[in-house]
Amino acid sequence: MLLRLFPFLLLASCAYPSGNYKGYQTKSYHVRGQTYQPMGVDEALHHTETGTASWYNESSFFGLKRGQTSLGEKVMPWHLIAAHKTLPLPCMVQVTNLQNGKSVKCRVNDRGPFIGDRIIDLSPRAAKKIGFRDQGLAEVEVKVLSVGDGSYKRTAKRKWFFGLF
Fold first, then answer.
1. Residue 151 scores a pLDDT above 80
2. Signal peptide position in this chain (predicted)?
3. Is the pTM for the entire model greater than 0.90?
């Protein structure tokens, strides 16, 4: 009987269950004596930045230990997620490795990184998809695609000129 239920249990854990928030979070917070003020939704929808990315692992699969994000969402190794200090939570971003041109879309649902000048932390799977998991760090471009969930979701509107943004 348990074996018959396993596929359903596995599929149920694939979703990003929502935490205790509505729409998106932009409230300030404190970490290691510093105050961070996330940007507003309108500002975030036009946000692009370049800098150093790292990756972090908050979960394990066979040990059944799972991490939890700032939004209260469970983290599994196959999720394409990220942490950012000042983007509204949650939001979708496109992260491009500037060395090889590979890109991945990630859900930003956590805060960080709080080490040095890093701008974003990616899940192990996201780091592998854009080719820097073995190196640990990469120079990337981060572009916001949307902010919020459900009826609160707002999508970035970008103008196209000859196939370019």
1. yes
2. none
3. no
